[in-house]
What we know:
By secondary structure, the chain is α/β, with parallel strands linked by helices. It contains 13 helices and 7 strands. A 7-stranded mixed beta sheet has the order 1-3-2-4-5-6-7, sandwiched between helices. The protein is 39% helix and 13% strand. β2, α3 and β3 form a beta-alpha-beta unit. The radius of gyration is 21 Å and the shape is globular. α4 (107-121) packs across α5 (135-146). The N and C termini lie far apart (85 Å). It has one domain (28-171, 232-310): Rossmann fold, CATH 3.40.50.
Amino acid sequence: MLSSPALSPLKTGLIAYGVVAGALFAYNVRWRFISDCFFGSKPKILPIRKVEATKKSNNVVIVLLHGMWHDASWYSKLQHRLQQRGYSSYAIDLLQGERFLPGFTQKEIVTDLKQTLILEAENEEVEYILVGHSQGGLVVQSCLKRCPELHDRTKATVLLGTYPLGLMPPLRALMKQPRNMYYHVGYAWIFLTGKLSSLEYLAHIFLLPTTDPSTLPDYTSKLLNAPSDGLITMTHFPQRVGVLSEKPTLVLGAKEDIIYPPHLFKSDFDNRFPNATHKAVPQQAHCFMDSVSAWDTDMEDMLIDWLDENVQ
């Protein structure tokens, strides 16, 4: 009786890798999303954390969109500071995990956002200042590209620690950075599962090396327990993107950001936002969660000062 030839270690490894990757993909995508890819899904009304200005002087609302694994609470500090300076704001919860597979595009989440803001406006002529951090910044850019209603109502744009929509990642330049996110098993885990693998990797990509993650237990625990997220971030490129807005725009990066180093993307943002102002917050990593000394300017100060100068 002839026996079948033994598989080489390489083939065995590839088969095992394929089985594990397929199982993880099926678990995290959840089969109920497959129909959405082919037939679309109904718009969802997104939860809003509203903070009204003490003295409302105009119909301008700042719309805040968070990044991967975060939720609307990430903007709590900023919303409080905005209220003190006379701005009303809506922090939108983008339903992490529920839009992990939004038809392989940002179409669904943009539609969700449009429906949510239209319902909230109640037929008033409201103007928006769109603010997006990281993945939220990609959603902001997608809104400007895909949704004429939101584009026309947008008075200004603020992009926090984010990436130019549609740009193919300059992997060579990113991997040459002294500190980067790629040479770590945590990056492969994100790619396969849409989740963070460990506190160590969370701290590596989101915080400065000098920041002890144990000083942020609630924040780090929430991120580590968050559902799968981020396929939006991995599927927006390549696409042709021209000028998205000629209105006032602030591109505000974190000086020590290893995910989206600000100096690598200035020209690409200028192509999309010809009137952009570029600033970088010193001594901050990607999520602007590092401690700030009393004499340093933080992200919130730089953002609000720019708003006072450009959109009041």
